Amino acid sequence: MSLLEIENATLRFGGLVAVDNVSLQVNEGEVFALVGPNGAGKSTVFNLISRFYDPAEGSIRFDGKDLLKHTADQVPGFGIARTFQNIELFEQATVLQNLLVGRHRHRTTGLLSNIVFSPKAYREELRHRAAVEEVIDFLNLQPYRDKMIGGLPYGVRKVVELGRALASEPKLLLLDEPASGLSVEETQDMAFWIEDIQTQMGISVMMVEHDMGLVSAVSGRVMALADGKELATGTAAEVQSHPVVIEAYLGTGEISKTGTSRA
Amino acid sequence: MRFVFKTSYDADISLFKHRAQAVWYGLLLLLVLATPLYFVLIGDAYLLGEITGMLILAIAGMALMLLTGHTGLPSLGHATFMAFGCYLNINLLGAGLPWLIAFPLSGLIAGALGTMIALPVLRLHGVYLALATLAMSILTSDFVVIAEPWTGGIAGAAVPDINIFGIEINRYSTPYKFYYLVLAVAILMVWFYRNLLRTPTGRSFTAIRDSEISARAMGINLTRAKATSFFLSATTAGLAGALFGHSAGYVTNETFDLVMSITLLLMIVIGGLGFIHGAFFGAIVVGIIPVAIANGRTFLSTTFDVNINVPGLESALFAFILVCFILFEPMGLYGRWLKIRTYFELFPFYRKDMFKRQKSYLKTDRVQ
Ligand SMILES: Nc1ncnc2c1ncn2[C@@H]1O[C@H](COP(=O)(O)OP(=O)(O)O)[C@@H](O)[C@H]1O
Ligand SMILES: [Mg+2]
Fold first, then answer.
1. What is the CATH number of domain B17-346?
2. A245: distance to nearest CA of chain B, Å?
3. Which fold has domain A1-79+171-263?
4. Structure pTM?
5. Hey, is the C-beta of B11 within 8 angstroms of any chain A C-beta?
6. Smallest CA–CA separation between B9 and chain A, in Å?
7. CB contact (8 A) between residue B210 and residue A152
8. What is the ipTM of this complex?
9. Domain ranges for chain A
10. Concatenated DSSP letters for A124-190?
11. Could you state, in order of their start, the residue ranges of all structural domains in chain B?
12. Each residue's pLDDT tens digit, B101-157
């Protein structure tokens, strides 16, 4: 059984059909990529999974449970973590504090226990710190640990956002354009991390990405989307050479340009 | 510059970042504990009363700081919650409850009432929430008049003395005891506040302040977290109101008016939004301005025989100071202090833009 199953999902913004009858599965342990020109509806698919939007039709199941019966703030509880295309960090907090918020779904203490800082709250904090510290080590964030987000360079913020998602110890990680705006070296790091996340941590990944080099390097299956509709699904090479996909990209030049940026 | 080498997670979790910081706060504690000694020596406790008043303001400031500075929800109605706490305290004491029960209970009930009022408006954002709470503040005076059996209406109500296990405490007859009592409450509140900020509950508040969308994506229930923040804030404001009543001795429908609500908001902005320190710095400024104006007047009239009697002078000066702060020091007094400290710690390497928020990208669309 697949980890994530979207069936015939449709979402309209007024007259615009942003997601048009899309079905997809993400299997346990795989890296699944969603590609397509800007405005194809990729981020909207993520926002459907996050329950920010209600699909007009279709179903979304995760781990056998009906996500549509739950609200956005309950989604992380099932083990789904995400990043945003336009980084959404807690700007007036440090890197450490940002990652700690990622631990929110694992909290076991309540208000009273927090206010008086009960021994239980203290032990829980120690556990959160230990988990967060592992993420900091994994992503080499030590130099920025106590820095405010507001002053960090773009590339670091991208990594912090990945770290915050990882801190929640998800089963499925949704990455919305993890390499956009990154340098070649930073993109390389991102590729290694995604591989490690998949192979060593056993976390399934679903990502939206324009960099076809990164997509072919890390993902198993790729789905191409345009105007909210599925064009093709298969390996990166299959999708890239699919005539319908090439036609969809025709004139945008995106797929050929980014395809050669990484070997 | 001080390098903090962290050897265990305790270094992050503990109340003080390093030994020196603990020593400084220890000295501060000694200072506030010893302050009454000075007034005993000079034999005049008038100014101690003013200091006690500042502490009460600081508690109210902490209440608003939690909601506005840490959760990002503005309120122009916090005097209303102070009124709840004050009148509840009067009535519970009147019903014969001992102060040690009546006082916390009045805070908790004020918190519950505040949350009930806030729930429908919590969905509102920014300026709309400010307007809703503003409306509440405007109505407060009328409600105090309507609820005359409990509030004394326009004629007002006397606030009973505090009695803790037979120890009578009154602002005028036992100013020292009253000071220590208020100090104890303030310190307890700071401790609660600090604990909150280093545990999941407080982190969920600041998360909401900085990005609601991200907070939700991390599993934070916005309504619940906001309601919790409101409850804690209104409870603390209620406690401050009860103490304010004891300090004033007599309260009327005009005590907890709109001006007080606005003053609280000014206070935390001047002090520094988002820092517990800000509540205290703000309370000191707000407490000192009237004293300074009064002294200035006396000085002018006695020395130069100039009598200034402009109605609303205090408010005007106040507004002027606030505008100056927003223009020149948006991080408030505490922000200024942080800058000065960093300057000396890093001397001579301080850069002028060190505290500037870097805008390296634009958030065009929030959800994408
Ligand atoms: N909140 C919204 N309201 C209206 N239209 C939206 C909204 N979010 C996205 N859209 C539209 O839906 C389409 C798909 O957007 P999106 O999923 O962000 O594309 P992308 O594939 O580039 O991530 C676009 O045409 C976009 O303008
Ligand atoms: Mg997108």
1. 1.10.3470
2. 23
3. Rossmann fold (3.40.50)
4. 0.89
5. no
6. 6
7. no
8. 0.90
9. 1-79+171-263, 93-169
10. HHHHHHHHHHHHHHHTT-GGGTTSBGGGS-HHHHHHHHHHHHHHT--SEEEEESTTTT--HHHHHHH
11. 17-346
12. 999 999 999 999 999 988 888 877 777 888 889 999 999 999 999 998 899 888 889
